[in-house]
Amino acid sequence: MQRLLSSLLFAACGLATTAAFAVDQKDLLPPTEAFKASVEQVDANHLNVIFTVAPGYYLYHDRIKVTANPTTAFDSTFPAGKIKNDPNFGKMEVYPHPFNLSLASKTAWPASTALTVKMQGCADAGVCYPPQTVTLKLPTDNASHAVQSGSKKDELFGTTKK
Amino acid sequence: MRPMCLTRWISVLVLLLTAHAFAATALDKPLKDLQGKPQKVSQWIGKPIVLNFWATWCEPCREETPAFVKLQKQYGDAVQFVGVAIDEAPAVTQFIKQYGVTYPILLGDADGMDMMLALGNVQGGLPFTLILDRKGHIAAQQLGVMKADAVQKALKPLIAAR
Question: Which residue range or ranges hold the Thioredoxin domain (chain B) (predicted)?
Answer without folding.
Answer: 13-160
